[in-house]
Amino acid sequence: MMYRAIGLMSGSSLDGLDIVYTELDNSAGKWSYQIICTDCIAYNDYWYNNLKNALHLSVQEYSVLHTAYGHWIGEQANNFIDTNNLHHKVQIIASHGHTVFHAPDNNTTLQIGDGAAIAAVTGINTVSDLRAMDLALGGQGAPIVPLGEKMLFADYGFCLNLGGIANISCNTGQSYIAFDVCAANRVLNMLAAELGKPFDEGGALAKSGVIDTVLLTQLNNLDYYKQPFPKSLDNSFGTDTVFALITKQQPETRDALRTYTEHIVQQLIYAINQLLPQADKTNNRHQQLLVTGGGAFNTFLIDRLRESLGVFGIQLVVPETAVVANKEALIMALLGVMRWREENTVLHSVTGASRSSIGGAVWIGQEA
Ligand SMILES: Nc1ncnc2c1ncn2[C@@H]1O[C@H](COP(=O)(O)OP(=O)(O)OP(=O)(O)O)[C@@H](O)[C@H]1O
Ligand SMILES: CC(=O)N[C@H]1[C@@H]2OC[C@@H](O2)[C@@H](O)[C@@H]1O[C@H](C)C(=O)O
After folding, report:
1. I want to staple 16 with a disulfide (CB 3.0 to 4.6 A). Which of 21, 42, 214, 256 is the partner?
2. What is the number of the ligand closest to the CA of 181?
3. How far, in Å, from the CA of 143 to the mean position of ligand 2?
4. How many angstroms separate the alpha carbon of residue 364 from the centre of ligand 1?
5. Does the predicted interface ipTM exceed a cut of 0.95?
6. pTM, full prediction
7. Residue 109 Cβ < 6 Å to ligand 2
8. What architecture does CATH give domain 148-322?
9. pLDDT, tens digit, for every residue of 196-216?
10. Distance between CA 231 and CA 225 in Å, rounded?
11. For residue 163, how far is its CA from the centre of ligand 1 (angstroms)?
C-alpha cells in the first residue's frame, strides 16, 4: 500500500518550518520512502519572537497563538501543495508543531500549533500531538523519531541528528535505544549571534578558536550527562543552563565556539560508548553511523567527530542533502501514517514508557 503524506516539523533551532511531501510504501513487506519535494519556510521576526517567547505568555495569549500558528501552518501546507501541484494527492498531514515546554519528570510536554486548525485550513486529515500518549504512559515523549529509523534506516547501527539538540539512537537488533545527548546548534547559534551571524558557517569560527579546558571540564560535569537513559532535554537546558555557564566563564567567542564544538564531540563519543555494548553486531551495521540535521553541514564539527569515531572503527555517513535537512519531517509523515493505520508510533524501549503506543490526535479534514 502506498501512502502520500506531508510531514511538518518545527525544530528546536527555530530556523523555520520544514515541509516534506513523501510517498511511503509498504507493499514489499517493509517500509520504503521517496522524498518528492521539500521546503523550509524561514520564520520571520513575528513568528521567531512569538514562538521563542511562547512559554512566558498568559493562558489566554497562548491559546490565541496556538490557534493562529495552527492556521499559519495550514496556510504554508496549502501554498506547498499549490506550488508542487499536489492537489488531490495528499492523504494525510502530520504536524509536530513547535516545542514550547518539555518536562518529562512531570509527564508533560507542550507543542504549539493547533492540529484542528491545520485540518480545517487544508481540508486534509491531520495528525498532531505525537508525544502526548507516550508521556501519559510514563515515557519521556522523546525522541520519537527512532520508530521511523527502525522502519526506514535500519541498515545503520546508529542514527545521530545534529539539530538544536543532538540526539542519538542505536539499533540493538531487537529494538532501539536512544536519548538526547546535549544541546547543539542552538548554543552554537547563540554564540555566533555575538559576532552578528545567524550560525557559524562550516564551523569556521570555531575552527579559528582555542579550547578553554576549564570551561570544557565544567560543561562535561553538568548533571544531565551523569543521568542514565531514557532521558530527554528541554530547550532551556541549552539556552539557560549551558549558555549561562559559558557566559560566566567569559571566553572569547571564537574560543567558546571551539570549546563547545569539542564538548559536543566528547558527549557524542561518551554516548556511543554507553550504547555500543547493546548495538546489533550482525552485518557490521554497528559500524555505520548516519548523521542528519543542520549540524551535518558544520564541516569542522563533522571532521572532529569523524576523527574521534575512527577509534571505534565507526564510519560516519552523511546522506543526500534532502535527507540531512528533512529526516525529522519525513519521519513525522511516517508517524502520521502509522497513527492512521493504528500501529505503534513510539517505542517504549526508547522512552521508558510502560508500553509502546499509538500516539497522536487525529483531526478529520474532509467533510462527512
Ligand atoms: N552550513 C552550515 N554550517 C554550520 N551550521 C549549519 C549549516 N547549515 C545549518 N547549520 C546549523 O543547523 C541549524 C539547523 O539545524 P536543524 O534544522 O537540523 O535543527 P532543528 O531541526 O531545528 O533542531 P532539532 O532537531 O533539535 O529540533 C542551523 O541553525 C545551524 O546552526
Ligand atoms: C521535546 C522535543 O521536542 N524534543 C525534540 C528536540 O529536538 C531534538 C531532540 O530534542 C528530540 O528529542 C526531539 O525531536 C525529535 C524529532 C524526536 O523526538 O525524535
Report:
1. 42
2. 2
3. 5
4. 33
5. yes
6. 0.98
7. yes
8. 2-Layer Sandwich (3.30)
9. 999 999 999 999 999 999 999
10. 10
11. 5
